[in-house]
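Action item from last meeting closed. Structure (755 res):
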């Protein structure tokens, strides 16, 4: 396959300029730090003949408005939240003797953009032959600081190679241009208007400032940009934008240098004005070189624990590192912000957080940056009050129901059949709490946050289900939607029942553990949660008697009615009718036996001990034949189970369709932002799929295989304070303890002690 970017193990390089691909490359070249996200827009914003989607986002900063339903009914989500595209501070317009730089109109040679995944910078370079006969060597670097949440920086260097000309640099701070959504694509922003009002802009010497308000949510967004440059400058303030300009006459050998230091701050209604803080922040910011050195050190430490190698496929290795790089850039770090389905790279899915976080992304951080995993769970903890309120609206007197999609914890899903009916979100979060504890043994977290989440989610499931006479007294969960959005409001979705069972068991176990190890916390929790140990007894009975639809001829239905639905052979669906959700009414899809992503396969990867190898093989073949993979979350799961059942070729094929999905724009929607869960899914394929990694009863187990396409591969994981490297080749695997105390692991069934 022809790749759009050069293959380089540590960089994404676009040599030349592809105007027709600008919107996609803007997502690929996005920079972020968990708070600020900047799409890889050209500094001059536009190029003749190219479409752009301009974007700067602040994680967790959103506006909302009431959802207008044609036929409203009780309990529908009330408000729609959408991430704000805030004022743009990264722009620079170059003018040489009155000729404005435009890649579509000017004579520009050797244009390149490089996303350096070790340096954490985006570098752009080109030669500009101006109409007035000069040659200018232009280099622009940009970074969004991974060590200072509120800072970003841009550095410009223009060198005159020959001729002489007057070069003006125009830098402005202006409201984002609003990108057109696609009202026919539910995955995209459905037609946006301007959500932000610019309330002030101004200049204080070389510092430009702007303040914007969200219309309805009471956020004030402040931005200040200091221009560090030895040239005389002027500033101009319009109604809606403020501009800094400097000009220098350049002759051969002369150089023009400018650094922009950018600071974003946010306050909510009733809080102190945070604009002075932004001004001070950009003035006090370290220079570009210092920020770049800190950035490099941060990423060195990250790659130290998250390293991956593939011997024999550089394109793949590039894709895997690209995925990890964007994941670490996008995750909120302060317990108040999460990670959106598209990270901070685009407006697809409106900046909403889904189960993607706990089911796909959190496992990556759990084994590479456990502190970050904890922050993401703290975000859920912070939204417990809203989840409790939502549970009451939904008729549950106890427990908490987390939102299917949200920014600040309020349910925003306007289409409940494939949205808020996905009760498994509670189980996904509970499972993540359990796994966080298993991998880190962080009892403080359990006592302060985790136990409360587990108890409230267990209560919700207990209230949702009942012991059904029709099912021989088994505990059933009816009328829910599993992750598979092509089978909605079903009874006994196997995945939902499995996570609920696990939720019951871990809530009971954690309360017992806290009683034993932290008696004071236990007393506090019992009082705060009005918890009685008899609740845990009830949960354990429900767990023991959880109902799972029985197999028919060896095939497990993923819900009670799945096998009764009308068959819809995949090969009868023309390519132009995919994804189905874009071409068929939901009801057409829901009455067929077809999956968007297969819940039974997911259950088999997570709860593998419940099924025999033969059952896994047989069910894999069946669900493989009825799954469209219309969700980018699907393929990784199939790849992991294919590995487990020894179908390495199939595992490899599925893996290859997710590992570089965004770099190669395989789903034709990279322009709307990168697919974070799929990117994390690729990491899960490497470690849990090919590496066969599982955490069983607190012990890390591996069962690696090496696909014949590679000579070998390696990955690193952090586990209980250790860093472990797994290296796999055709001849077998080796394990190395890189840091931490000796630890026992299980490799291919044998216990090994690493020291
Ligand atoms: C998938 C969901 C996912 C959402 C956001 C949908 O297409 O079906 O499972 O949570 O995308 O990534």
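Sequence:
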């Amino acid at each position: 396959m022809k790749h759009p970017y050069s293959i380089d193990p540590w960089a994404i390089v676009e040599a030349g300029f592809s105007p027709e691909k600008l919107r996609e490359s803007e997502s690929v070249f996005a920079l972020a730090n968990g708070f600020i996200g900047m799409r890889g827009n050209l500094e001059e914003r536009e190029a003749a003949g190219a479409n752009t989607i301009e974007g700067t986002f602040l994680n967790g900063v959103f506006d909302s408005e009431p959802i207008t339903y044609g036929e409203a009914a009780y309990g529908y989500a009330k408000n729609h939240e959408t991430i704000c595209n805030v004022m743009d501070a990264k722009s620079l317009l170059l003018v040489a003797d009155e000729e404005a730089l435009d890649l579509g109109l000017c004579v520009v040679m050797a244009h390149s953009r490089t996303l350096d995944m070790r340096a954490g910078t985006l570098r752009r370079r080109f030669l500009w032959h101006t109409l007035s006969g000069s040659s200018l060597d232009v280099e622009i670097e940009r970074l969004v600081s991974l060590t200072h949440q509120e800072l970003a920086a841009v550095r410009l260097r223009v060198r005159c190679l020959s001729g002489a000309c007057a070069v003006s640099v125009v830098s402005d701070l202006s409201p984002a241009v609003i990108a057109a959504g696609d009202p026919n694509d539910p995955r995209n922003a459905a037609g946006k208007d301007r959500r932000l009002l610019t309330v002030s802009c101004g200049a204080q010497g070389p510092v430009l400032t702007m303040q914007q308000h969200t219309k309805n949510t009471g956020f004030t967004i402040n931005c200040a940009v200091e221009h560090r440059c030895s040239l005389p400058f002027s500033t101009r303030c319009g109604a809606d934008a403020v501009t800094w300009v400097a000009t220098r006459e350049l002759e051969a050998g002369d150089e023009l240098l400018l650094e922009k230091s950018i600071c974003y701050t946010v306050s909510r209604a009733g809080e102190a004005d945070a604009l002075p803080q932004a001004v001070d922040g950009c003035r006090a910011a370290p220079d570009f070189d210092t920020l770049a050195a800190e950035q490099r050190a941060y990423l060195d430490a990250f790659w130290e624990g998250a390293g991956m190698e593939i011997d024999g496929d550089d394109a793949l290795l590039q894709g895997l590192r690209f995925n990890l790089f964007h994941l670490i850039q996008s995750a909120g770090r302060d317990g108040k912000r999460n990670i959106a389905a598209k990270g901070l790279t685009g407006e697809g899915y409106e900046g909403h957080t889904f189960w993607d976080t706990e089911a796909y992304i959190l496992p990556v951080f759990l084994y590479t940056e456990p502190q970050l995993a904890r922050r993401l769970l703290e975000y859920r903890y912070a939204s417990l009050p809203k989840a409790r309120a939502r549970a009451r609206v939904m008729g549950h007197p106890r427990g908490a129901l987390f939102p299917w999609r949200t920014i600040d914890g309020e349910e925003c899903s306007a289409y409940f059949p494939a949205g808020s009916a996905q009760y498994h979100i509670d189980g996904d979060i509970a499972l993540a709490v359990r796994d966080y504890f298993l991998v880190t043994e962080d009892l403080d977290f359990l006592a302060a946050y985790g136990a409360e989440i587990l108890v409230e989610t267990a209560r919700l499931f207990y209230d949702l289900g009942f012991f059904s006479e029709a099912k021989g007294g088994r505990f059933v969960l009816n009328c829910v939607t599993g992750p598979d959005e092509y089978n909605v409001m079903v009874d006994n979705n196997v995945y939902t029942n499995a996570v609920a069972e696990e939720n019951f068991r871990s809530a009971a176990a954690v309360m017992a553990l806290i009683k034993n190890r932290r008696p004071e916390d236990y007393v506090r929790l019992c009082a705060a949660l009005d918890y009685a140990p008899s609740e845990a007894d009830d949960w354990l009975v429900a767990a023991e008697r959880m109902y799972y639809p029985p197999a028919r001829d060896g095939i497990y239905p993923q819900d009670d009615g799945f096998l009764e639905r009308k068959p819809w052979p995949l090969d009868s669906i023309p390519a132009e009718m995919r994804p189905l959700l874009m071409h068929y009414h939901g009801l057409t899809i829901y009455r067929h036996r077809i999956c968007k992503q297969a819940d039974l396969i997911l259950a088999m990867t997570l709860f593998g001990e419940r099924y025999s190898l033969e059952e896994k093989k047989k069910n894999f073949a069946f669900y493989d034949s009825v799954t469209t993979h219309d969700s980018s979350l699907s393929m990784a799961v199939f790849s992991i189970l294919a590995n487990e059942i020894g179908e390495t070729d199939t595992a490899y094929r599925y893996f290859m369709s997710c590992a570089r999905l965004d770099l190669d724009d395989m789903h034709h929607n990279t322009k709307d932002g990168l697919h974070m869960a799929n990117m994390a899914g690729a990491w899960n394929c490497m470690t849990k799929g090919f590496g066969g990694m599982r955490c069983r009863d607190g012990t890390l187990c591996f069962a690696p295989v090496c696909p014949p396409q590679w000579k070998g591969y390696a990955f690193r994981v952090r586990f209980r304070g250790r860093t472990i490297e797994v290296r796999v080749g055709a001849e077998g695997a080796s394990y190395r303890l890189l840091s931490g105390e000796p630890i026992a692991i299980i490799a291919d069934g044998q216990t090994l002690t690493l020291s």
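Note appended to the action item: The CA atoms of residues 317 and 373 lie 24 Å apart.
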